[in-house]
Known about the structure:
Layout: E1 22-28, E2 40-46, H1 50-59, E3 66-69, E4 75-77, E5 82-88, E6 96-99, E7 102-106, H2 111-120, E8 123-124, H3 136-142, E9 145-146, E10 149-150, E11 155-161, E12 167-171, E13 189-196, E14 198-199, H4 202-219, E15 225-226, H5 239-245, E16 252-253, E17 256-258, E18 266-268, H6 274-292, E19 301-303
Helix pairs in contact: 2-4
Amino acid sequence: MAMAAIKHPDRLIDRLPAARGEYREDVALARYTWFRVGGPAEVLFLPADQDDLQQFLAATPPDVPVTILGVASNLLIRDGGIPGVVIRLRGAFNETSLTEGGVVAGAGALDINVARYAAENDLGGLEFLSGIPGTVGGALRMNAGAYGREIRDVLISADTLDRSGVGHSFDADAMGFSYRHSGVPGDHIFVSAIFAAEPDDPAKISARLDEIGAARNETQPIRSRTGGSTFKNPEGQHAWELIDAAGCRGLRIGGAQVSEKHCNFLVNTGSATAHDVETLGEEVRRRVLDTCGVELQWEIRRVGIAGNGGRK
């Protein structure tokens, strides 16, 4: 006679509903992040598809914290890790397809892949996405932009699931977009979006993609362990210019450094902890305030429990 599995009430995983996707406990998250720093997820959930995610949200106790993780290109996970369930979208959430007037993209699709998919189908208007590191879900959440365009300029609609698993659809006007911000409630998980794109000359599309790629290579430390732009641009100013004026270019704390190439980027030189990165960012903010009288606001989202990454 088979014995029933023993339940451990102190283990979060035993409080979670059955799912077709995959649960993993105590998963190191640093390898999923561009900074390559940060602590573990208490539980990592990889849903099989949107229905699986919806059922998980509906059946998971409301007191269980839920955090969504894309490719963490604009995210700093603190050294103490993330309590609760971290959800990573992959598989079906990475798909793209054509629709009348544009492109449908899953929230897990890389922005650059959406731009390339549109180009492969001779559709223009989404080339700027190739200059945004990360996924569609993250781009929607922060109204990401690059090279003169933002998500709000091309979004037709976006679909979400709220914390209880109920589906919602937002058109561009309902998204509450502003600079590097959307007004969609923070507990909603983006699952897909439709972007407007129009037929265009393939040569012109290709040229724009090449131009953006060359500009990124020339001006940004894209081959470093970084997290993209660290601080939002104050109105009418460029954060990098303020950081440079405050004498922070090349500044180091532990294994974290202000990029010599573009000083609105922080980089992990190889031995940084999340604590090093965040401490450096706060020091940059302090120096810019003292020197320029401007209080920089973080663009990088910081999540999890603080720690020192083993530093004494």
